[in-house]
Design brief:
about 260 residues; alpha/beta; 6-stranded mixed beta sheet; 3-stranded antiparallel beta sheet; 6 helices
Length: about 260
């Protein structure tokens, strides 16, 4: 979405409106963890993964990125496995794509992957961190409490996007809570892709959203207690605003905060 300015957005902290000072295209480098379901349930989707991911990479690593954005590819069947570490090198990423196969009798370990990827983002102190999960409507075998996973996700300051392929299923409570609350609380998308052949279009839409983000700076009163809830909305019809704070809980400088 182009030509967004301060008058187009509303920021609220604990339901108190704040003055939007600046809205600028976000130019900081992005690190994207692309988590791909390689469980047995994903067997019929592997070909679609291999076709869709290069189209996603074309956008997030395109000329407009200046070569700064990086992508990692992580398999989440059986156990989280790095197929390609964070890089902008298309040959290395293609080698990672070539490693994507379904694992016989394996389940999905989405919650384990979010925990481990989030820990990695914390260690690297990544300014713009993104998790994109391509999951199949199959069994989740991670033994993780959803609250613990959401805490790690929040601490990583990453945005979580989930593209779930197939008809909606009934998952264990922990995965359902992470999928629903994790995407919403971090400003991410939760898309149901009913037909695997539609994955390329959805991934391209998501890629354009990621590289088309804005950095919003708004006024914030001096306070030792950070707000419990920050909301962003748009005044323009037909648009949806999502966001996540990209600065620590304490303002980087008195009187303002970025989003």
């Amino acid at each position: 979405v182009e030509n967004i300015g301060p008058t187009d957005l509303t920021i609220r902290e604990d339901n108190v409106a704040r003055e939007v000072l600046r809205v600028q295209p976000a130019t900081d480098p992005i690190q994207i963890a692309l988590m791909v379901d390689t469980s047995q349930a994903a067997r019929d989707n592997i070909r679609d993964y291999r076709q869709a991911i290069p189209a996603f990479l074309d956008i997030v690593l395109g000329d407009n990125s200046g070569g700064q954005n990086q992508v990692a590819i992580v398999g989440i069947g059986e156990r989280p496995t790095i197929f390609a570490d964070y890089t902008s090198d298309r040959k290395k990423l293609q080698a990672g794509i070539d490693r994507i196969f379904s694992i016989n009798q394996a389940g999905t370990y989405l919650l384990d992957a979010i925990m481990e990827v989030g820990q990695g983002f914390q260690k690297r102190k990544t300014e713009r961190a993104v998790m994109v999960a391509l999951v199949t409507e199959g069994p989740e075998l991670s033994d993780r409490n959803y609250q613990l996973v959401l805490e790690r996700l929040k601490a990583s300051h990453a945005t979580l996007h989930i593209l779930s392929i197939g008809s909606p299923g009934n998952f264990q409570q922990d995965r359902s809570q992470v999928v629903q609350l994790g995407t919403k609380s971090t400003g991410g998308r939760l898309d149901q892709v009913l037909v695997p052949s539609g994955l390329t279009t959805r991934l391209k839409e998501l890629a354009n959203e990621i590289v088309g983000q804005y950095r919003v700076t708004y006024s914030h009163p001096d306070s030792l207690i950070p707000p419990e809830k920050i909301e962003v909305s748009t005044k323009k019809d037909g648009l949806t605003a999502r966001g996540i704070p990209i600065t620590p809980p304490a303002p980087a400088r008195p009187g303002s905060r970025d989003r």
